[in-house]
Amino acid sequence: MIPILGAIAVWLLGWWLNSRLASGPYSDTRMVRFLAPLIFGLTVIGIWELVVRGLEVPLVILPAPSVIWVRFWDSLPTLWADFVQTIIKGALSGYLIGCGSAFLMAIAVDRWDFLRLGLLPVGNFVAALPIVGTAPILVMWFGFDWHSKAAVVVVMVFFPMLVNTVAGLREATAMQRDLMETYAATYWQSFLKLRLPAAMPFIFNGLKISTTLALIGAIVAEFFGSPTLGMGFRISTSVGQLSLDMVWAEIVVAALAGTAFYGLVAMIEKAVTFWHPSQRG
Amino acid sequence: MKQIVAVLTVLAAIVIVWYAACIPMNIKGVLTEQERAGAEVQPPSAKDRRDMDEIGLALNNAFAIPATWEQERPRLPAPHQVAIEMWETTVQKKITSKRSLIYHGWVTLSATMLGFVIGTGLGILLAVGIVHSRVMDLSVMPWAIVSQTIPIIALAPMIIVVLYSVGVQGIIPKAIISAYLSFFPVVVGMVKGLRSPDAMQLDLLRTYNASRSQGFWKLRLPASMPYLFTSLKIGVAASLVGAIVGELPTGAVAGLGARLLAGSYYGQTVQIWSALFAAAILAACLVGLLGLIERTVLKRMGMAQ
Amino acid sequence: MNTENTTQPVIEARQLDLTFQTNDGPIHALKDVNLSVGKGEFVSFIGPSGCGKTTFLRCIAALETPTGGSLTVNGMTPDEARRNRAYGYVFQAAGLYPWRTIAKNIKLPLEIMGYSSAEQDERVKKVLELVDLEGFEGKFPWQLSGGMQQRASIARALAFDADILLMDEPFGALDEIVRDHLNEQLLALWARTEKTIGFVTHSIPEAVYLSTKIVVMSPRPGRITDVIDSPLPKERPLDIRDTPEFIEVAHRVREGLRAGHGDDV
Amino acid sequence: MNTENTTQPVIEARQLDLTFQTNDGPIHALKDVNLSVGKGEFVSFIGPSGCGKTTFLRCIAALETPTGGSLTVNGMTPDEARRNRAYGYVFQAAGLYPWRTIAKNIKLPLEIMGYSSAEQDERVKKVLELVDLEGFEGKFPWQLSGGMQQRASIARALAFDADILLMDEPFGALDEIVRDHLNEQLLALWARTEKTIGFVTHSIPEAVYLSTKIVVMSPRPGRITDVIDSPLPKERPLDIRDTPEFIEVAHRVREGLRAGHGDDV
Amino acid sequence: DEVTLQLKWVTQAQFAGYYVAKDKGFYEEEGLDVTILPGGPDIAPTQVIAGGGADVTVEWMPAALAAREKGLPLVNIAQPFKSSGMMLTCWKDAGIAAPEDLKNRTLGVWFFGNEFPFMSWMSQLGISTDGKSDSGVEVLKQGFNVDPLLQRQADCISTMTYNEYWQVIDAGVTPEELVTFKYEDQGVATLEDGLYVLEENLSDAAFADKMERFVRASMKGWKYAEENPDEAAEIVLENDATGAQTEEHQKRMMGEIAKLTAGSNGALDPADFNRTVETLLAGGSDPVITKQPDGAWTHQITDAALN
Ligand SMILES: Nc1ncnc2c1ncn2[C@@H]1O[C@H](COP(=O)(O)OP(=O)(O)OP(=O)(O)O)[C@@H](O)[C@H]1O
Ligand SMILES: Nc1ncnc2c1ncn2[C@@H]1O[C@H](COP(=O)(O)OP(=O)(O)OP(=O)(O)O)[C@@H](O)[C@H]1O
Ligand SMILES: [Mg+2]
Ligand SMILES: [Mg+2]
Asked: Which PANTHER family does the UniProt record give (chain A) (predicted)?
């Protein structure tokens, strides 16, 4: 009972702190933008810990954050090896190949209207193929190692990236295009000097969406066959062994890696599209 | 019109590439079968063929090429095999039959719809909270992004077990996973949409001394409609994936996910592919339906020109 | 000179100051602004871009909070006046809600202020006549030309009985002929209703033609450089613009503007 | 009358027709347009909204293809002239690329046309002086006021040596003082360079002040209702606007406009 | 009384006894209303029972003992399966004839708690599982089908005598092309498909009574299934909601299952238990269990149920 009351108290405290921050004089500063979510996260973790302890939730159902934390530090080498296998080899290579080829394809689609009309609807259809169905097929085709994971990631990120880039390349306003016309600019001149820069916000949107997709794709694909290594492998094996603390440690790694990856792309975006109103605000 | 021609051309190209791809993909299996049936195959032993180049094999054993489109358990089924399987499991089966894709599609669809309704409902509520409360905006929004980096699909089995433990079974666990996946796009889209009124439109209401709820119903909500529909379309596709994922670990009970699993379990590639396509067609229909609703609603609101 | 002293001031600014805090440092948008506007006056604000015309109008309507000095409207703070629904505001762009028909757009303030449905219909009919838009009730904004949209937005501001009408370059996007026509109509309306009007414009003839008082402003920091009380009669046919009085006032405004402009051309 | 007959026409339209096909049926944007513009002329187009001014300018620049009649530029088709880089076009909105600094924006056409880097720098410097924007080379468009952006976009059109300058309401968004100043500068530039200029405006005084020829248009379908050759001398101080000749021309333009406007006010 | 049974895997003849007991009304006769929950690839039955989602579960003993060490006190109350059906199936033409030949090969293994017998066997053979070498094998986490073998991505894969082996055969491979190593023959067999409940529940007399009736009816179902394999297979087919199972495969599976249940009347043979524990304790560097389990089985239920 006391831990539950404690949990409620933690909740009220976190909320009160954040309300103070949000309505306070510094509510627009970077500090608050960083602190508020942190306090929120800590509040959630505090409640989690207290509820798990208070209700005596069994370890095999939901481990407490402190237990996960201990497991995380004890298993760093394993987690690192899994991270390299899944994120670096599987997700990252798939991300680069997928986004790269989608970008090239987008240029072709942009160049030939026929392709845009024909390929995009088909592309949307293919994008709707659920990953849990494609992953086993790709594992069958590309083997058990990271290559098949990269292939799954390529399939997952290709179409979101394609659709965004194509939309972006059409983003330049009629007036901006007309200006290029009056200069009698060639296709590639107007591509490089107008359409590509104008497309950047969209391209980055696609790149951002793709970061989380890549991560999820690489992990889930490991459920359908893998070497005895990797985050997806570890998660499913650990569930079987009832090592739920290990499962959550891997999830922490996934969340950290995903956030860092997303943040990195968002930072590059800020630098590249500094001129866009959404980045100036 | 031009669009139809273009789509058909692209489809034709895909089908041709697909048929061509069947040859190298399936040639090894076909040769093994042919060898067992007594045909003369170059080279004769499966072990020798193991590391050989598929295209070379196909050229050396050209007689086996037609068989690559007719295998019972191919690595890559030919388009017509998938089409026939889909035809047989939809049109030619009673829809109440457990072998009917329509039956399984319906099972998945009902979980999808429930999850979609829950997910969008929560998503919209959260978006309203974020737009109206700075505390929520500051503290919750970043975590909504982090939540998407968690491989929920990997957690699906655990979620289902945890729900078992509180006595929730059947359609609900699937719907919850599907709600989780559709929730995020709706939050992001609706936050954007509810914030889309420009300063002038907001100031106008201020000069009228309108209340917050009047501002919501008369300005923010209608202004967010186009965004809502865009995110609903993304959300419904995600919902479907969620429902299918939720069907996997609960065992091959029913639904398209169970079909995928069973197909995979018994090496029935044709069945996997037809379930896959059924899922994609279902997604396309849902998105198309939403598009239709979008057009009528926006037209009635005067926002489609 | 004619109205200011005879009636109690509706808008009264004393040493008004407003500084915006931005990432590039503070911007002094209004400095030491003193102005007194009597009931039923038509005040035009004119000045180069960025001199604070819009900002001043927004302060009056309580959309911006001054950082110094005092400002009263009908003897209250602007915010109290806002809560009493004292203002009809016409923004520079028409700003109609695209999902509402013209009639529904005009009804928007009426709905918010809780008018009965019958009263709403009646008022919509009346103001649509006033701005020559009968027959367009059922149309959506994008089905109208820019000029018609602007008229609809004026109708919206007239639909409820605000004492004070604030208009921020309402005719900026229109061509001269349409503009002349709307100017005439606005004057007629003003004469009929005795509203107090604050009007921002870039056009010297327009300012002179419409106003009882012309406020010339200059930027960096935004301040009032000249307040000209118009000697023109209340009754103003379009060709009053060729009279010597008119040309003289226009000349004075132009001089005031030029002085304020300085190096910034 | 002064220039048209002495030089070979630069722009020659004969029975020009343009119909847009839209979902609501065809729109007849230009009908039977005949116009001949000689080298070095300054032609203004004036007319109510939607009368086809922009469309005609776009036809000249080969951005729109006429559906009937003939149009030659320098004796070639507009498209050939475009490929010879005959045009400098200034759009109604500034249309600077937000990811380029002012200097880089002005360099854009120069890069495309393959000028050397040294030449680019030199020209940028020259045109920035011309439009009074020295010191702003490194700024991004959104760091400048609307008027400055518009001037930068004029500088961009002047940076390369196009024979023909087409300007679509370039000063629409500016206040009167700035506008006067830019009008003077444009006239000076025109006198110096002997460019042929096509200029769209809504302002009668502006049209009369700048042009050697004023084309009055009217809508539905868009057509030319009057072509007025200005009797004003080439040398035009600002106060020429108070001369009787000026007022007379302005009056004729106003009458032409009013006739074209008809019921559409 | 209501009883929820969690299966280890999808609906198939492997669980025929329970379906027969339900279908034939044996549970009803005992006054039980039994709900059978099928399992799946990522459902851990131990976790389900820990969360209270089921009263009793079908599980393999290694996983159950591992869970017990993790602090989840599972107790075996009945053991319908006498022998193990697990084996390793290899290509003969890869040159594999004896367990020693496995070195330097690629092997497909099930994980998710099913890897324990394999790990024990390898450590008994002195073969490491860290990758291909003269003294080690490369282990793949195989999915739930036999593709890795058919596609020759692995030289050997895990199969069950009653299921995956026949899928390989169904794919057109002849038994002569294959070499199989049954865990039973290698002396590393562990007990499969037993019935497990939570220890604390057993002290509740009402629960114990319910389980007695449940076990009695289930064993009746099993024996009925052994005697009428074809009918049992059809009952299973009727209960399969996916419609993916084929009659032929299920009948054959039933035949194989009958061989595994044949030697058991439902009561656990302590000798089998001890052999399982020994095998697991021998499990190399990362053993499944580290100490002799205590109280992991009981005859309390079977004694009451079967006598
Ligand atoms: N919200 C704001 N934040 C920061 N600075 C502002 C803000 N609003 C206006 N300013 C600045 O205050 C000054 C006055 O702006 P204001 O809009 O009142 O000018 P204006 O006279 O209406 O100009 P225009 O004729 O261009 O509409 C300008 O320098 C402007 O940049
Ligand atoms: N791309 C187009 N498709 C269809 N109709 C068009 C198109 N461009 C212009 N129009 C129509 O052609 C007519 C002439 O348009 P145009 O833009 O030339 O007018 P304008 O004289 O420049 O008007 P404004 O003063 O408002 O700029 C208008 O009725 C307009 O609606
Ligand atoms: Mg303003
Ligand atoms: Mg135009």
From this structure: ABC TRANSPORTER PERMEASE PROTEIN HI_0355-RELATED, ALKANE SULFONATE ABC TRANSPORTER-RELATED, MEMBRANE SUBUNIT
